Amino acid sequence: MNFPVLSVITFTPMVAALIILMLPAQRKNEARGVALAAATFALILSFWVYLTYDQSAAGYQFIEKYNWLPALGISLHFGVDGISAPLVLLTGVVMFTGVLISWGDDDKHVMAGIQDRPREFFAFLFLLAGGVFGVFVSLDLFMLFFFYEIAVFPMYLLIAIWGWIQTREYAAMKLTLYLFIGSVVSLVGVLAMYWLQYKNTGVLSFDMILMENAGFSQTFQNIWFLPVFLGFAVLGGIWPFHNWSPDGHVAAPTAVSMFHAGVLMKLGAFAALRVGIMLLPQGAHTWSWLIMLFAGVAVVYGAYIAFVQEDMKYMIGFSSVSHMGLVMLGMSTLNRNGIMGAGIQMFSHGVMTALFFAITGMIYDRSHTRQIPELGGMSKIMPFATIGFIIGGLVSMGMPFFSGFVAEFPIFMGVWEVQWLVAVIASISIVITAAYIMRNIRQVFFGAMPEKLEGHITDVTVLDKVAITTLCLFMIVIGLFPSFMVPLIETGVENVLRLLGGS
Amino acid sequence: MFTSTMFASILPEVLILVLGMLVLIVEPFWKEEKRRNVGWLTAGGLFVAMIISLLFGQPGEPTSTLGGMIRFDWLGFFFKMLFMFAAAATALLLMDNDKVGHRGEAYLLLLASLLGMNLMAVSSDLVMLYLAIETTSIPLYILSGFMLNDEKSTEAGFKYLLFGALTSTIMLYGFSLVFGFTGTTNLYQLTDMFKTGDLPLVTALGTMALILVGLGFKVSIVPFHFWAPDVYEGAPTPVAGFLSTASKAAGFAVLLRLFFVAFSGFAVSWTAVLAVLAAITMTVGNLLALPQTNIKRLLAFSSVAHAGYAMIGVVAYSKAHQEWSQLGAASVIFYLAAYIATNLLAFGIVMAFSKVTGLEDVKDYSGMSRRSPWLGLMMLAAFLSLTGMPPFGGFVAKVFVFAAGVQAGYVWLVIVGILNSIIGVYYYLNVLKYVYLYRMPNQDEENHPIPLTRPYAIALVVLAVGVILIGTVFAPWFSWSNAAALNLF
Predict the structure, then answer these.
(1) Is A422 exposed, middle or buried, given 0-12, 13-18 or 19+ CB atoms closer than 10 A?
(2) How far apart are CA B91 and CA B110, in angstroms?
(3) Largest CA distance in chain A
(4) Quick one: pLDDT at residue B324?
(5) Is the pTM value of this prediction over 0.80?
(6) Lowest CB count within 10 Å: B9, B15, B343, B345, which one?
(7) Residue B129: enclosing H or E segment and its boundaries?
């Protein structure tokens, strides 16, 4: 038996969370140290999985299977394919940079990082991270759900305790209720699938690979596709169920915003693809027009709302809605280009938005405001962060040579194949995105610095720079060398198309 | 002839009786200030009794012993172990309750009621069943009103007594009707005699309704739940915990055996009735829990709601598909196991907290996680488990119950259950908000720690680990529940 790398990745954060909790409360730096060590370890392992995934063999790899409850067909079944391997890597990257950002130094002027109870903060954050890893690698529906819920509830505490004091209670509760409602709606669908499979094939199992061949009837798929897909897609921020997301972003502390937008929303999109589209493909064919409609609205509407925001975090929050709309739009095409673009966009947007939130957090920690008109001139004091933000902005706008282009171009091609009008309308969002990103860069980084900020602003720390560099590196590498990611995702898309092709 | 099977079938009860007498004998010899050690004796004794029963008292094939009064099977055995575990934890939690824990009678009453519960789980005869239920109830009436100088406690004891006496007489009337119609009191003979064709449907439903009043009171389903909040609020906290867990589970044990075995002939009718009751119970329990400000009342309504969730598994009984119904029964038993650990943990924390602070309102929990991080974490575990979040027991239990419901075709009921879980998220998280987010007004929390005495520390840690184990390594618990459920058919 090979080294069980996926379960090690999944349980590393959880074990680290336990170790951190065992430390005495006043040993803040030890808690941070353990967190960083675990995050680095998980990043290295997930990178290793990404690089050693055998593209010629394709399919599910690094498979581990342990019977957990044979009586009901529940097993701890892990494996990654071309779509989930990049997401595992993404989680590793965001986790690593998230810890760096939250380190918190004891500077009087800078309220950076997490000063209050870092022990509990990192423990909850890592519990969440373990849940996220678990969802991406689970091939068992029950376990997918198990980890999905683990990934959701720490958000409540993370936002409610360490969030922005003005909206945190409201936003945390709103987010939790939205996500919980979404997940339980999908749960009913999943249970229905489970029993129908048993009726059809006589196999009692939550195994998703088996469920792909369960022979669900057309009517069944038509009925259950929407609850299952939309239930998960709530976490993906699909319009009209996106409302929790910007509020949550704004209220969350920096590292949690990074996790939330960078990884958690991918969790919803990924689960919607894996469970909704892959297990109920005929339902997907029936309802793809509706998903395309919702996603199309999300793309344009999200971008437009982002454009009129004055609060930087709200702006990025709504831009996430817009970009995740592109992911959903790609999925709704049900063709090769669209789904492949969606796969790349998930990674690209995850890294980009994590970078945005990280830099916004750095600015807020120093200036204590996120209002774009109240900021200015940051480029003189924090040039490093400025460059990072510009790179992120270029990715966001879909500039060639950056990962955003590699992702968005196939999506629009895929949409054009299905319905050219949607592609035209959705492409308006690119213009709007360019407008708000450039406005933001000009005002915040290059405008004149307001007098009251003069003298209070310090440069970002070394750890922050490491985080920014790591995130930028991925966006540039994928932009310059699409072959770093595209062929890998293609192998995963192949499998999705095989399942969709039957009708 | 008294055979070894007969003895094995009541081995735990014999041991409990011996332990009770030991408590009576030993207690007067201890000085006043050392009396709380009776709690160690009770908990330790129960632990030993569990081990002995597990070693020598395991049932084989289901058999009827002691003149058909007792059914010796896994269903009863699994419930017995649950009750004894719950009673041991309760004994530990009682020890440092100043008004109760220093009096040996409290532990004796606890054991007496435990004895009744054990017999409830194994009775296979209506006469035996009634006696067992009364043996359970009467000591609990006394325990609820144990704090004589406390008005609320007295009120709780008296209220519990009045409600209990009323409902149990109604149930007894139902029993007598069953006997009148069929001429037998044995549950397993009733299977063949109490069925459509022999009996008009209206008569049968009426009789079952009378019996349901008594059982509904025990498991506190709506509309027989009125006593719960007042009694939980007034009774000594560990007793309230015991009432809301073991006593409720005992009610479910009887419910399963009565309805799955004796009344299986009318399954189509009573599943429909119970489905409606389950839906109402969940909804009323959760909605009334929303505005509560006292944590014990909140837990009381939440325990009403949880009776409703567990009931989904009972409803999932369908005569046509035996293996399906088996999952329903197994999920109920699993649910109860998870719920017992979770709710005892919750009540234990409430007890530990109010012992130090003397306060029981939700808002008094402000800053608790700063005052005692570990107690805060345990509170987190208990409340998230009640919410139904992994990796705690409540999540798996809920999924199993819902799975059984979907399987039996009760999708609407599962949807009601899910809507209710969402209401639950709101008020459970609201409590955690006080624990984790709010600060003590004008105080530095560091100066107000919440020290745990040793019995609390042991009981709470065991329960918290139990909640997490049930929620992660659920295979063994499920196979035991399944083995127990199998004995119903």
Answers:
(1) buried
(2) 8
(3) 73
(4) 58
(5) yes
(6) B15
(7) helix B126-144
Provide mean pLDDT across the span B125-131. Answer: 93
The tens digit of pLDDT for each residue in A289-333 reads: 999 999 999 999 999 999 998 888 889 999 999 999 999 999 998
User: Mind listing the pLDDT tens digit for each residue in A103-112?
Assistant: 766 555 455 5
Facing residue for A156 by CB, picked from B373, B377, B429: B429
Chain A residues close to B384, C-beta within 8 Å: 153
How far apart are the CA of B10 and the nearest CA of chain A, in angstroms? 30
For A396, the enclosing helix (H) or strand (E) is helix A383-397
Residues of B in contact with A173 (CB under 8 A): 426, 429
The average pLDDT across A449-462 equals 78
Contact B399 A187 (CB under 8 A): yes
pLDDT tens-digit map of B468-487:
999 888 888 988 888 888 88
Q: 3-state class of B260 per DSSP?
A: helix
| Res B270: pLDDT | 87
**B298-337: b (≥16 Cβ within 10 Å) or e:** bbbbbbbbbbbbbbbbbbbbbeeeeebbbbbbbbbbbbbb
Q: What ranges do the domains of chain B cover?
A: 263-489
Give A111-136 pLDDT, tens digit per residue.
555 667 778 888 888 999 999 999 99
Q: How many CB atoms lie within 10 A of CB B443?
A: 12
Closest CA to B87 of B65, B130, B116: B116
CB-CB under 8 Å, A25 with B437: no
Place A503 in a pLDDT band, splitting at 50, 70 and 90.
Answer: very low
Q: Which two tokens stand for residue A265?
A: 């929303």
Encoded tokens for A432: 């709007």
Q: What is the distance, to the nearest Å, from the Cα of residue B97 to the centroid of all Cα atoms in its chain?
A: 21
Torsion, Cα A436 A437 A440 A444, to 10 degrees, reads 180
Are B418 and A187 an interchain contact pair (Cβ–Cβ within 8 Å)? yes
Q: Which residues of A touch B (CB under 8 A)?
A: 21, 25, 67-72, 117, 119-120, 142, 145-147, 149-150, 152-153, 156-157, 160-161, 168-169, 173, 176-177, 180-181, 184-185, 187-188, 191-192, 194-195
Close Cβ partners of A141 (under 8 Å, ≥ 6 residues apart): A190, A193, A194, A206, A207, A208, A211, A275
> Cβ–Cβ contacts within 10 Å for residue A240, how many?
9
The SS3 assignment for A115 reads coil
Chain CA centroid to CA B71, Å: 21
Q: Which of A22, A119, A187 would you mutate first to test chain B, the one with the most B CBs within 10 A?
A: A187
Tokens, residue B205: 């439903």
Q: Which helix (H) or strand (E) holds A78?
A: strand A74-80
Instruction: Determine which helix (DSSP H) or strand (DSSP E) holds A66, and give its type and residue range.
Output: strand A61-69
Q: Identify which of A21, A69, A187 has the shortest CB distance to residue B474.
A: A69
Tell if the CB–CB gap between A176 and B425 is shorter than 8 Å. Answer: yes
Taking only the tens place, the pLDDT of each residue in B277-316 is 999 999 999 999 999 999 999 999 999 999 999 999 888 8
Q: Which of B321, B371, B389 to mutate to test the interface with A (most CBs of A within 10 A)?
A: B389
What gap in Å lies between CA B280 and CA B270, rounded to an integer?
15
How many percent of chain A have pLDDT more than 70? 97
Q: Between chains, do A188 and B373 touch, taking CB under 8 Å as contact?
A: no
**Interface residues of chain B, partner chain A, Cβ below 8 Å:** 327, 369-370, 373, 377, 380, 384, 387, 389-391, 395-396, 399-400, 402-403, 406-407, 411, 414-415, 418, 421-422, 425-426, 429, 432-433, 436-437, 474-475, 478-479, 482
- ipTM for the whole complex: 0.88
Locate the chain A residue with the closest alpha carbon to B439.
A161
